[in-house]
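Issue 218. Parser rejects a valid record. Input:
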Amino acid sequence: MQVRRSAAIVGGVALMGAWLASATGLIPGQLEPAPPQPRASATSGGASLDQEVRAQAARLRDRLHRAPNPQPAGRNPFRFESRRPALDRVAPSRPAVVEAPAAPVVTPLPVKLEGLAEREVDGAKKRIAILSIYTEIFLVAEGETLNARHRVKTIGADAVELEEIATGAVTRLAIR
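Output the parser choked on:
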C-alpha cells in the first residue's frame, strides 16, 4: 500500500514538472498568428449599394412611424402614493371619533416543547417538560412558572399546557 502511494505521488510530481517545463519553453513572440484571409464580397458597384442602403433606411423609417408610441409609466416605484388618491384629498364631513386606547398587544413567546421526561419521586412518577425559548432551555414541572408571563398548567404524555398569568389564556404545545 505504501509503495503504491509513493509511486502515485512521484508520478504526479513528474507529470506536473513536465507540464511546467513545456509551458516555459514557449515564448509569447515566437508564435505568430496567421494573417487574416481577405473575404471576397459580391457587389455590383458603389451606386447599387448606395441605392440599397437608402431603400432599407426608408423602409425602417416607415416602420418606425407606424409603430405605437410607448405609454408613460402608470406608477413610479420610487415615490410613495396612496392607492386611493381621490379619497385622500376629500376632507372628512364629520369630526373624527377618538377611540379609547386598545389593550396592549402581547406577542407570544416562541416557546417550543423539546421533550418530556419522567422521574420517580417518593414512589410517584413526576413529569418534567423540556421547553426552549430562543436559545434557553427550561426544565419545568406542573405548577412552576416558566418566566414572568407563563405557568405550566398540565403536562401530558405528549403535550404541555401553558397558562398566561396575566390573561389566563391557555396555550397547548405538542411534540412534533
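Fixed in the parser; the record now loads. The longest strand covers residues 111-121.
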